[in-house]
Design goal:
The chain is of the alpha/beta class. The protein is about 40% helix and about 20% strand. It folds into two domains: about 5-120 and about 305-345, 2-Layer Sandwich (Nucleotidyltransferase, domain 5); about 130-300, ATPase, nucleotide binding domain (Nucleotidyltransferase, domain 5). Helix 1 runs parallel beside helix 2 (about 85-105) and helix 7 packs parallel to helix 8. The protein binds 5'-O-[(R)-(carboxyoxy)(hydroxy)phosphoryl]adenosine and zinc ion. The site of zinc ion has 5 residues, from helix 3.
């Protein structure tokens, strides 16, 4: 039974986790989020994120080893998020993983962060049902994949402008809410009327798997800050809840309808979802209802494994290690990812 240490530092979460191959059980995990540090900036500052990774990685790795009651020599592999992501941030995790692998003479496994989001549903759960449609909805991605296995993925559609998480964050900023905005919108939407604002569902009838959230964002801006988008926000507390609920409903409807289209177009009945936006309670409900109605097998990670975490890196690392897909010490981070985050769908 392999025991793998996973390291995640692709953006603004510094994380480490130790998983055992047996049931993909989590022996220990820690996530340090820098999100609060970036609230004042309204987004991640890459240079600051990288410096924080350097500061926090050693302590977090020591902490998971202690929590798991393991010595470094008892590990069987070091998996690290190697692409895509911010170059400075990726370098911290990859360099740290290389040093550990070299010092302990262990296999080094460079992991695709997006593929790892789509492995997170396997953590402490049943093996995933391949082939499947994969949907990654995060701060940087809103993409559909045809999945033939862990890390065997083909891009089949996705956003042509903003990612869903990016749209949530920008919508929250328009409503005077904090960063990251997704969780704020989620909370307020529960108390709002989703029909209060008529917001567009872009590309809903395009017949393909393209997504677009830029128009929705602009429509919300005009709805809450006047026709030029420059007026003061005059909504009361209930109005903000209504705007949040209307915005969230538009995103959820588009994602669910396009996901169903993806299943139909590719003749697949299994759906695997991941990414920070998959924490969204409206989206989770929408996906569960959709999959129940259309008899689709839905795999959703627990909320703590939707957002960036290292358990998903170790989870995919275990599969890659078993398949002998390891790297040499010349592993280099690749900010744009193997296929490129905005690559044209096949
Ligand atoms: O996967 P993730 O942690 O990082 C990336 O790889 O991008 O996703 C972060 C994104 C942010 O845009 C955040 O606002 C969004 O996920 N998010 C949510 C929720 N929780 C996090 N969006 C909507 N509802 C949520 N509950
Ligand atoms: Zn992510």
């Amino acid at each position: 039974m392999h025991i793998v240490l996973g390291i995640e530092s692709s953006c603004d979460e510094t994380a480490a986790a130790i998983l055992t191959e047996d049931g993909r059980r989590v022996l220990a995990e820690q996530v340090f989020s820098q999100a609060a540090d970036f609230a004042a900036w309204g987004g991640v500052v890459p240079e600051l994120a990288a410096r924080a990774h350097v500061q926090h990685l050693p302590g977090i790795i020591a902490a998971v080893l202690q929590q798991a009651g393991l010595k470094p020599q008892q590990l069987n592999g070091i998996a690290v998020s190697a692409w895509p992501g911010l170059m400075g941030s990726l370098l911290c995790g990859v360099t740290c993983a290389k040093m550990l692998a070299a010092r302990l003479d262990l296999p080094l496994i460079g992991v695709d962060h997006i593929a790892a989001h789509l492995s997170a549903a396997a953590i402490e759960s049943q093996p995933l049902p391949y082939p499947a449609i994969g949907l990654v909805v995060s701060g940087g991605h809103s993409h559909f994949y045809h999945l033939d296995g862990p890390a065997s993925m083909r891009l089949i559609g996705g956003t042509i402008d903003d990612a869903a998480g990016e749209a949530f964050d920008k919508a929250a900023a328009m409503l005077g809410l904090g960063y990251p905005g997704g969780p704020h919108i989620d909370t307020l939407a529960a108390q709002g009327n989703a029909k209060a604002f008529a917001l567009p569902r872009s590309l809903l009838h395009s017949g393909d798997l393209r997504l677009s959230f830029a128009g929705l964002k602009t429509a919300l801006l005009y709805a809450v800050r006047g026709p030029c988008g420059k007026e003061e926000l005059k909504l009361d507390k209930q109005g903000i809840c209504d705007a949040a609920a209307s915005f969230q409903a538009a995103v959820v409807e588009v994602l669910c309808r396009k996901l169903l289209a993806a299943c139909r177009q590719h003749g697949l009945r299994s759906v695997i979802v991941g990414g920070g936006v998959a924490c969204n309670s409206g989206l989770r409900r929408g996906l569960q209802d959709l999959c129940q109605e259309h008899h689709l097998d839905l795999r959703l990670p627990r909320p703590q494994h939707c957002a960036d975490n290292a358990a998903m890196i170790a989870c995919l690392g275990i599969d890659l290690l078993a398949a002998g897909q390891c790297h040499n010490l010349d592993l280099s981070p690749l900010p744009t990812g193997a296929a490129g985050p905005r690559a044209t769908p096949a």
